[in-house]
Amino acid sequence: MDELQKKIIYLIQCQRSIDDICKELQLSKEELFSLLRKISDSGISLNVLNGGILTFKSVETIKKPYNIKMGKGHIRLGLIGDTHLASKYDDLDLLNRIYDKAEKRKIDAIFHSGDLVDGIVSVPNYFENLKEETYTGQMKYVIDKYPKYSGKTFAISGNHDDYWTHLTGKEIIKDISKERKDIVYLGPSKRIIYIDGLKINVLHGRFKQEGKVKSVKTLIDIIPEEIRPHFIHLGHYHTSLADTYEGVQFFRTSSLVRESPYNMNRMHINEQSIYWIDVYFDDDGKVDKITHEKDTFSKRR
Ligand SMILES: [Fe+2]
After folding, report:
1. Model-level pTM?
2. Which residue stretches of the chain have pLDDT < 50?
3. Residue 208 Cα, ligand 1 centroid: separation in angstroms?
4. Which of 36, 55, 191, 220 is the most exposed place for a label (fewest CB within 10 A)?
């Protein structure tokens, strides 16, 4: 797929109109539709044409990037995910230890890749897995117990948080963030974040396959060169992975729950790890170097 096709996909994801796309890329409508046929032939199928806006069946829309200003030559980040709070298997002690470490390490911001709460999964007797069974119960649990530190936690929702959206129409992390100003809600399932010259994609992964290396590569392949992130932070898969593809680093964070029947049934290695990331900028504010360190907390390594 060439750069022009990638740019078309990106602009459709941003919900730009056909006229807008033609104008920005200096294409006629005939040229655009001919390129759309090529995109469709590569396996990315278009869904509908609705009032001049195109959508894809298999590619989600993109929200406007979230901008954070730090203005430093060196920033320190923490990547965590899948805390499943209010589950009987959550691990608040561990989460507190992680945030204590974040304070000691002078971490500027922590990113959470979703499944902040356990939600309520539509399987029989799921209540047996929960400390709190209601929307308000899980919301208050996080408001009261989520660790505090001097920086902020930026979170997207995962499928477990989204169970509440399906049931109540409300976004639980959004409601939590109203009471906890140190927790910033970035929206459902994925978000692009810019920290000065650094571009990050935080993504939960709707399906198990999205966490796999092959799927991450497919995801990176369709991002136009000029907007490619420096790194992608993924959740959902409950096991960690750090890799690089086409100059993009990706970090998949493990779950931070204790040994649970869910993890044991799937033979997941419950390593309870996180990534600490150091980003160095050059004098022009461009990213010069990114290093990472995996911190594993489980006794069973
Ligand atoms: Fe999860």
Report:
1. 0.86
2. 301
3. 10
4. 55
Runs of H (alpha helix) within the chain: 3-13, 18-25, 29-41, 92-104, 135-145, 159-168, 172-179, 213-221, 261-265
Q: Is the distance from CB of 2 to CB of 33 less than 8 angstroms?
A: no
| DSSP class of 264 | H
116 CA to centre of ligand 1 in angstroms: 8
Report yes or no: 185 and 155 within 8 Å, Cβ to Cβ.
yes
- Extract the tokens encoding 271: 């390593």
Q: What CA–CA distance (Å, rounded) separates 118 from 27? A: 47
Cα 182 from chain centroid?
18
**34: CA distance to ligand 1 center in Å?**
40
Whole-angstrom Cα distance, residue 104 to residue 194?
A: 25
- Identify the structural domains of the chain with CATH numbers, from first to last: 3-56 (1.10.10), 66-296 (3.60.21.10)
Give helix 18-25 / helix 3-13 axis angle, nearest 10°.
150
Ligand 1 mean position to 238 CA, how many Å? 6
User: Which residues have a beta carbon within 5 Å of ligand 1, which is an ion?
Assistant: 82, 115
Q: Rounded to the nearest 5°, which phi and psi values hold at 68?
A: -125, 130
pLDDT at 301: 44
- How many angstroms separate the alpha carbon of residue 124 from the centre of ligand 1? 18
